[in-house]
Specification:
Elements (H helix, E strand, L loop, with lengths): L2 H10 L5 E5 L2 H16 L11 E4 L13 E7 L4 E5 L8 E12 L9 E8 L12 H14 L8 H9 L6 E5 L2 E3 H4 L6 E4 L8
Parallel strand pairs: 1-8, 1-9, 6-7
Antiparallel strand pairs: 2-3, 2-7, 3-5, 4-5, 5-6
Helix pairs in contact: 1-2
Length: 202
Amino acid sequence: LDSLDLLEEDFRRSTGNSVLITHSNAKALRFNEAIRERLWKSGSSEIQPGDILLVNRNDHKTGLCNGDIVRVLSVDSPTTLHSIHLRNISDPVRLRFRNVRIAFPAADTAKDAVEYGVLILENLLDSPERILSALEQRALLVDFTYRHKDLKRNSREFLLGLAQDLFFNALQVKYGYAMTCHKSQGGEWARVVVNFEPSHPS
């Protein structure tokens, strides 16, 4: 068995307790795509119940932290698309949101797993970047402003609304089958596969 065979076997047993570690977000994306293609076949492009996600930013509503691993229990709705037109940018920035139900910790064997119904931002799922782009971050703020035209920018009410807005504060996630060395720090898994392929082949 090669490393992807081993990981596929682990994830099919639904332990959620294995990971592939590599050197870059671009590599992690390619490995996540390869593992998900094995798991979900034709459904790999859409998030699936059973998918493993990596939280990419602290979330005050759930208490989930950057680096936490969660499992998708159910996908509650189709993607909601917000197309945001930014000044001096020709093409709109598309923000993709979806309601899902997740469990933390991700492993099915966890006795004290907590379930959450959350709105996730899907943009990072197929991105080779570490975080949202500057345009995507700007679009989140502009989107909130469009939806709350009655609030004066930077007023107390505006800032309070921003802190409580579901879309602006949507959970930012990546797929969690593969991740960078940086993201894996502090994590514990039953099986760890490390990709030593150099970033610049000699």
